Amino acid sequence: MSKQIKKVPIVHFVCPNCKSSSLGCSDISFDKQQITCSDCTRQFSALVVKVRSRNSRHITKDDVRFLSIRVLDADGNEDLIEFDNPSKENFEFRAGDVVGFTYDSNGRLAILNNYTVDRTMFIKSGWNLNAIVGLGCLLLIVFAALLCLFGLASSK
Fold first, then answer.
1. Which candidate, 40, 5, 33, 13, places its Cα nearest to that of 111?
2. pLDDT per residue as tens digits for the range 110-121
3. CA-CA distance, 48 to 101, in Å (whole number)?
4. Are strands 43-59 and 8-13 parallel, antiparallel or unpaired?
5. Residue 63 CB: number of other CB atoms within 10 A?
6. With helix as H, strand as E and coil as C, how does the chain read?
7. Is the pLDDT reported for residue 68 higher than 80?
8. Has residue 74 got a pLDDT over 60?
9. Residue 26 to residue 156: CA distance in whole angstroms
10. Mean per-residue pLDDT for 73-84?
11. How many Å separate Cα 28 from the centre of its chain?
12. pLDDT tens across 34-51, in order?
């Protein structure tokens, strides 16, 4: 039999688009929700869960922090949420803390809230070093293919 998790009395969501923090829901359950911002009227989704455990490591050469969080939903079902943040910044939370994951309209994790200690971390989006190197290799391959193609066409 799984343990039931108590509902959070009040949580405030921060809109990932306009950063408005005036959004609040009372007696929210631990289910993923679609939310429309009252300020910018754009939609985003949010998930509120309870932390079972977490792991965080920082890769110095790429300046990226990887986080793995085991979470429990309202029915006590366990899930694993993993993401990286191109920053040295760590986010403090412990087993038993109630946290919220806010996703932008494209489904990317944008904001992490710890409602137990009232902390918020904005997940930086953008290019990390691995993405830049990968894109550079792809462009180099395309450029080499174009050179071969035009070189063969001009020699005929």
1. 13
2. 888 888 888 888
3. 6
4. unpaired
5. 12
6. CCCCCCCEEEEEECCCCCCCCCEEEEEECCCCEEEECCCCCCEEEEEEEEEEEEEEEEECCCCEEEEEEEEECCCCCEEEEEEEECCCCCCCCCCCCEEEEEECCCCCEEEEEECCCCEEEECCCCCCHHHHHHHHHHHHHHHHHHHHHHHHHHHC
7. yes
8. yes
9. 73
10. 82
11. 20
12. 888 888 888 888 888 888
Average pLDDT over residues 9-17: 77
Write out the two tokens for 151: 């070189």
Confidence category of residue 27, pLDDT binned at 50, 70, 90: very low
Q: What is the pTM of this model?
A: 0.67
* Tokens 């894109």 sit on residue: 135
The C-alpha atoms of residue 24 and residue 46 are separated, in whole angstroms, by 12
Alpha carbons 15 and 8: distance in angstroms, whole number: 19
